[in-house]
Structure formats: C-alpha cells, structure tokens
C-alpha cells in the first residue's frame, strides 16, 4: 500500500480489480437508492463505482480510522456529490447503525478478518437491507466442488501465519450463514486472479 501527500492511500490490487468487479456488479445494482460498502479500505473502489453510477448514493464504511481518513481524502480529491462521509462500522458488531440500504458491497474482507466479521456482515445486511436488495461479496474462497489454486493455498497459509483467525472461507459456509439471515444465494462468478464474486438477495 502506498500513500499520496494528500492522504489518499492506494493499492495495485484495487487498481486491477475495480474494473472487473464493476463489470459484474454494475448490472446487478438498482438504478437509484443507497449502497453501503462494508470495509471500504483505501476508498478506491467506492469512488470508482460512484463515478460510474452517479444515480446511486454510496455510503463507505470501515472500522479503521486510517482507512476512513483515506476514504475522506479520496472524496475530497474527487469532489463526488453522491458519496457520503465514511462511517465507523465494524461488520462484527452485534448491532449496526440505524441504516436502511438498497444494496451492500463487501470487497476483500472475509479472508482478512475473524469469522465473526462474516457472521456480522450477514446479520447486519439481513436486518438492514431492503427486500430484494443485493449483497455483493468479492474475494478468494475455497469451494467444495473445485480445487483451490496453488497461489490461493499459499495465500491462505500466509494469512493464517499472520493471524490464526484469518484465512480463505469455504463458499458453502458463507452461503449457509447468508441464508440463515434471510439472504438467498443467487450465484457465483469467476473473477481474475482466482477470486470470486458471490451474489445474494434479501428475501
């Protein structure tokens, strides 16, 4: 991760994957409404999406003060009027702020957080997402019906060495947790670099 003098942080991965993500995410989004981004990180994704979909209002969020500072710096630099100030939101929290949103996006969080964050993501979106609303998740996953790429196996080992609570999640476990919170599984899309897009809808 690198930083610009004005406080904007950026990563090569975000620059590479934001286009392919938008190609899948864009057609799934509503024409208008509020979109919550959980774990916004540097803020690069939300500004890219907001530029592409100006009819939507975007709400970035992250529990990290440093991440929220980077998001705010990106918003100041871009001058986007359809993005709200970043919200202090920990996905694992028992209760989320009083929000009602029409879609939710979560990119590269599940594997670098405890399983409690995945449980909280499903619990929070299950409670706050409008009926029929989208939950879009992106990242590397294990699948019961497919071998894990060697690069993802190495990545998983590195994650667990850094924090034993981290690691690639089983898609089937994520799906079960979503469905237990009223989020129906709509499908999966293969993405570059052995990542996946997971698509859920609020019942």
Please outline the helices and strands.
Layout: E1 2-3, E2 9-10, H1 12-25, E3 33-38, H2 44-52, E4 56-60, H3 65-78, E5 101-107, H4 115-128, E6 129-139, E7 141-142, H5 150-162, E8 169-170, H6 171-179, E9 183-191, E10 195-202
Parallel strand pairs: 3-4, 3-5, 5-6, 7-8
Antiparallel strand pairs: 1-2, 6-10, 9-10
Helix pairs in contact: 1-2, 4-6
DSSP strand count: 10
Distance between the termini: 38 Å
Strand order of the biggest β-sheet: 4-3-5-6-10-9
Q: What is the overall number of helices?
A: 6
| Helix amount | 25-40%
| Oligomer status | single chain
Element-by-element helix/strand order? EEHEHEHEHEEHEHEE
Largest β sheet strand count, sense and barrel closure: 6 strands, mixed
Category from helices, strands and their pairing: alpha/beta
**Spatial extent as radius of gyration:** 16 Å
**What does the overall shape look like?**
globular
Fold and architecture overview:
The termini are far apart. The protein is an alpha/beta fold and 203 residues long. Helix 1 (12-25) runs parallel beside helix 2 (44-52) and helix 4 (115-128) runs parallel beside helix 6 (171-179). The chain has a six-stranded mixed β-sheet, sandwiched between helices. A two-stranded antiparallel ribbon has the order 1-2. The chain has helices at residues 12-25, 44-52, 65-78, 115-128, 150-162, 171-179; strands at residues 2-3, 9-10, 33-38, 56-60, 101-107, 129-139, 141-142, 169-170, 183-191, 195-202. It has six helices and ten strands, in the order E-E-H-E-H-E-H-E-H-E-E-H-E-H-E-E. The model has no long low-confidence stretch (mean pLDDT 97).
């Amino acid at each position: 991760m690198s930083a610009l003098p004005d406080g904007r942080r950026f990563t090569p991965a975000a620059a590479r994957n934001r286009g392919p993500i938008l190609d899948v995410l864009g057609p799934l989004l509503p024409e208008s409404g509020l979109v919550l981004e959980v774990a916004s990180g540097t803020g690069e994704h939300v500004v890219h999406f907001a530029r592409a979909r100006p009819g939507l209002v975007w709400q970035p969020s992250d529990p990290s003060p440093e991440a929220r500072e980077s998001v705010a710096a990106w918003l100041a630099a871009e001058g986007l009027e359809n993005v709200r100030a970043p919200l202090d939101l920990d996905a694992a929290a028992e209760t989320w702020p009083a929000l009602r949103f029409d879609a939710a996006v979560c990119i590269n969080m599940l594997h670098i957080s405890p399983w409690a964050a995945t449980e909280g993501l499903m619990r929070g979106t299950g409670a706050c997402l409008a009926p029929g609303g989208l939950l879009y998740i992106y990242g590397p996953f294990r699948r019961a019906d497919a071998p894990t790429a060697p690069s993802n196996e190495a990545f998983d080992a590195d994650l667990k060495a850094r924090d034993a609570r981290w690691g690639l999640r089983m898609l089937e476990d994520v799906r079960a947790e979503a469905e237990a919170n009223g989020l129906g599984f709509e499908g999966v899309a293969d993405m570059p670099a052995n990542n996946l897009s997971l698509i859920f809808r609020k019942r």
